[in-house]
Amino acid sequence: MSAPIIDQAARVFTDPSAYADEPRLHAALTHLRANAPVSLVDHRPYRPFWAITRHADIMDIERDNELWINEPRPVLAPADADDLQRSLLDSGMGLRTLIHMDDPHHHKMRAIVSDWFRPKAMRAMKARIDELAKRYVDEMLRIGPECDFVQDIALNYPLYVIMSLLGLPESDFPRMLRLTQELFGGDDDEYRRGITPEEQLPVLLDFFAYFNALTADRRENPTEDLASTIANARIDGEPLSDLDTVSYYVIIATAGHDTTSAAIGGGLRALIEHPDQRERLRADLQLMPTAVEEIIRWVTPVKEFMRTATADTEVRGVPITKGESVYLSYVSANHDEEVFDNPFAFDVGRDPNKHLSFGYGVHFCVASALARMEIDSFFRELIPRLDAIELTGEPQLISTTFVGGVKHLPIRYRLRA
User: Torsions phi, psi of 309, nearest 5?
Assistant: First the structure.
């Protein structure tokens, strides 16, 4: 067994601004993969954790969901935010989503919505997704020849898809977008509502107020939408608690669109910055399935999840004690030289593409098929109509330690009707 390694480059994971500075981030990750693929990070305000940067190690950890569990620390957060989350859960007001749970409860909760995202359901939704993709490319045409692609288009298209699936009124979409940005943007100066966890708590309370009212309505007046499925679900014959119901809505309503928005915004940026790949895709739309996977790898909207050891173990020969947590760096795994040929090349025909952007194992993203379909439909509509496109300013990225991507993408373009 090796002695623990503490590499200062691993502090990058505790700095939200690093994800808004990609050269700096990737320099640190490349160094860690080569020199300290399992590195101890002990840097306030976070509790200590082990940073895991190799693709194979992350897959091994995610594969063994009995040794490595999500509770009590599923994502990286400052110690005071972790403490507040635990106290809120004790009071019935914290979030306990699918990412916070372990089997067998996780399996039972996941099954509630799984039918909505199976291939048969996705095929039934295809025409509607295509229609919405056309609607938003038409919107680009209407507001052109310049726009902030992320704010004007990429945020709104997936939002419309998931909110429609839930059955929420279109008048509420802006409110859900703002709350999502505040929830995931707690480290970003533009998006956050307050600085301390206590100052950001009203975001959570706003979600609870909205979704508690929705639950009551769907239980009294059930419909055919996803919101009704969640509101009226039962586990072992018992209805979901208010906490579990609201938490379910929150994960669907936020992660269900924010990650896809990040992929579409980052995907267009990649196609602008790699015009040879854009032209390659235009010349052969049969490449779209591999292009979608490459966009998802390239952007990696979910930057990390964490797991906690249930017994003494080791990773790559490094001892890890029961109760210690590991940080799974999906961004690093998706650029691992041992898995991807020329990982810093954007290649719309990359195959195979074993990216970990949707996770792996029992926690593999339940809505991955929907995300793929939305990205595919949007670029199938956009690329053939796009005669010219360029950046008119520097892309700006979200400061985060969890979920994010490009938040401003100023572009000039010429589209066909």
Answer: -75, 135
Please report how many Cα atoms fall inside a 13 Å half-sphere around the Cα of residue 72, on the Cβ side. 15
Residues 332-361: pLDDT tens digits? 999 999 999 999 999 999 999 999 999 999
First-to-last CA distance in the chain? 63
Which are the contacts of 299, defined by CB distance < 8 A and separation ≥ 6? 262, 263, 265, 266, 267, 270, 357, 405
Instruction: Report CA torsion sign: 39, 42, 44, 45.
Output: positive
| Separation CA 149–CA 174 (nearest Å) | 17
- pLDDT tens, position by position, 239-275: 999 889 989 988 888 877 889 999 999 999 999 999 9
Please tell me the CATH superfamily of domain 8-415, with its number: Cytochrome P450 (1.10.630.10)
Query: Which residues of the chain have a pLDDT value below 70?
Result: 1-3
Burial code of 375-412, b = ≥16 C-beta within 10 A, e = fewer?
Answer: bbbbbbbbbebbeebeeeeebbbbbbbbbbbbbbbbbe
Please give the pLDDT value at position 273. 98
Residue whose token pair is 């480059």: 9
Domain positions in the chain: 8-415
Q: In this structure, how many other beta carbons lie within 10 angstroms of the beta carbon of residue 131? A: 11
Identify the residue whose tokens are 């300290």. 36
